[in-house]
């Protein structure tokens, strides 16, 4: 990987460069956690300003090959705003442009379909809220009926309707998209969703009856978690700690 990819060029201001660096770190973390889908899936971060431009990965690169400099800058139509040898993943533009165009409170959107998540969203009931992580999602999940590969503009409005005011969108029979006001908060929310899916799959494989949580307890848990993420710096601490751990493991591997 070219070292120049990590040197801030003169034409990119400090605010955008910091966003690029953190988004590249987010791609690397998703790979490090084992949540990638080969070269597919996508993470976007909205750039400051009224135009709703956003950054997204170059299609064809592994997540570990994403750098601050090779991230694509696109508009809400998926049109590249700066020259690049790469194009974006067409399947990502409908989802990301829909959310970035409609939700000013969502600045980062992450789409995955790991095996546990894919298994849960295939089930008619979707996410349950009877374990520690599932409870944190109570009242925070919208459900969207599968319409095939997400390529077409006419599906955008329906996805936004399905998302509502939530920050987790279940794409039934497909995967999930999570969105938050910053990259670190979106990653922490994705981690919560992933852990909920893993626990639900493990519990479902066991015999015996589940011990249900009362709705009021689940709602309290979800509310407290949302408050911690948005008001305490909780997500930033998590993100930075995971970057340090990933970096150390990579250094030791060398």
UniProtKB/TrEMBL annotation:
InterPro entries per UniProt: Aldolase-II_Adducin_sf, Aldolase_II/adducin_N, Aldolase_II/adducin_N_sf
Residues annotated as signal peptide: none
SUPFAM superfamilies, sorted: AraD/HMP-PK domain-like
All copies of domain Class II aldolase/adducin N-terminal, residue ranges: 21-201
Short name of any one Pfam family annotated for the protein: Aldolase_II
Family recorded in the similarity comment: Belongs to the aldolase class II family.
Protein name, per record: Class II aldolase/adducin family protein
Organism encoding this protein: Pseudomonas typographi
Higher taxonomy: Bacteria, Pseudomonadati, Pseudomonadota, Gammaproteobacteria, Pseudomonadales
């Amino acid at each position: 990987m070219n070292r120049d990819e990590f040197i801030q060029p003169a034409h990119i201001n400090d605010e955008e460069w910091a966003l690029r660096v953190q988004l590249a770190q987010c791609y690397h973390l998703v790979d490090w956690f084992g949540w990638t889908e080969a070269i597919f899936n996508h993470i976007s971060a909205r750039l400051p300003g009224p135009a709703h431009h956003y950054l997204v990965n170059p299609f064809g690169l592994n997540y570990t090959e994403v750098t601050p400099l090779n991230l694509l800058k696109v508009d809400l139509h998926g049109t590249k705003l700066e020259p690049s040898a790469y194009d974006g993943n067409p399947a990502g533009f409908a989802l990301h442009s829909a959310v970035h165009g409609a939700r000013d409170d969502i600045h980062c959107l992450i789409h995955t379909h790991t095996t546990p998540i894919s298994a849960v969203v295939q089930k008619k009931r979707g996410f349950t809220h009877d374990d520690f992580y599932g409870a944190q999602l109570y009242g925070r999940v919208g459900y969207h009926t599968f319409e095939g590969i997400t390529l077409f503009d006419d599906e955008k409005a329906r996805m936004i309707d399905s998302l509502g005011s939530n920050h987790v969108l279940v794409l039934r029979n497909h995967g999930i998209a999570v969105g938050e006001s910053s990259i670190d908060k979106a990653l922490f929310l994705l981690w919560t969703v992933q852990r909920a899916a893993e626990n639900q799959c493990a519990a479902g494989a066991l015999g015996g009856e589940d011990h249900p949580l009362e709705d009021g307890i689940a709602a309290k848990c979800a509310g407290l978690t949302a408050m911690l993420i948005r008001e305490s710096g909780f997500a930033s601490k998590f993100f930075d700690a995971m970057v340090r751990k990933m970096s150390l493991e990579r250094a030791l591997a060398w």
